[in-house]
Amino acid sequence: MNRNNQKSIRLEHILISFFEEKTGALAEISLKVGVDLESLRSIHFPNDEETTIYHEQLQTTLTAGVQTVLEQAEKYMHRYNQIMINEGHVLKALLNDPMINSIFTEQQKQLLLNLGTTARDMITHLADYNLPRDAHTQQIRKAMKSDSDHLLSFIEKEFSSEWMRTIESGMQDEHPSIFIAIDDAEKIIGFAAYDVYQHKKCYFGPMGVAKRNRVKGIGYSLLHHCLKDMKEIGYEYAIIGGAGPMEFYEKACDAVVIPKKW
């Protein structure tokens, strides 16, 4: 393929894709932001085409504006201690571009940020839930009282004092509803909990896996051990509070975003 003749991905292409998405949190954008999709399709930024770059990983050409957006999205990813760029990172970076920024009112921009870039509550139905076969069990077990010091130290170091305090409170229960993941050296590398955040019932979270151990299915397994417990308790639904990587929960347990009211 002649790269010079290949059509480049431009800023307006990415913008339109956010308004065309009909699933997940982004489905609310086209319904609530109040922008005509046809008018977006007519937008063209000539200055954005002055320089194009071939992106080896995507195997396509990008305009310089799109490359800048992706670089900024990657910075957001690192800032939030994540390992994959998600839709929220890209949308937030896109709205930083002066040309894109000029299209929307301040109210529309705030709505876009609230709907597409912030953590959202999600929900999944447990009535027909079964533990998936690929939810590994050899690394996962219930936290015991003797795990408390190591667990709290791990959470404070890898995540936040706020999460540490939430789990500290949960560990005071007679039978803590907290699972941990351990490595071959018996060191804690992840955790997940339910019914611990403000002692709310049917509420999953927080959950975290050490950055060096992500993309190994550990978070997936921790999630499903909690959901299995919640199903056995008799919960009809599980609320996933403040889900950051929403795409993960959509795929892992068919969770859907709880719509916001405005």
TrEMBL record:
Gene Ontology terms for molecular function: acyltransferase activity, transferring groups other than amino-acyl groups
N-acetyltransferase domain location: 138-262
KW Acetylation (keyword) present: no
Gene3D superfamilies cross-referenced by the UniProt entry: 3.40.630.30, Clp, N-terminal domain
Recorded superkingdom: Bacteria
Keyword Transferase carried by entry: yes
Pfam families documented for this protein: Acetyltransf_1, Clp_N
Keyword terms of this UniProt record: Transferase
InterPro entries: Acyl_CoA_acyltransferase (IPR016181), Clp_N_dom_sf (IPR036628), Clp_R_N (IPR004176), GNAT_dom (IPR000182)
Protein known as: GNAT family N-acetyltransferase
Species assigned in the record: Ornithinibacillus caprae
Taxonomic lineage of the native organism: Bacteria, Bacillati, Bacillota, Bacilli, Bacillales
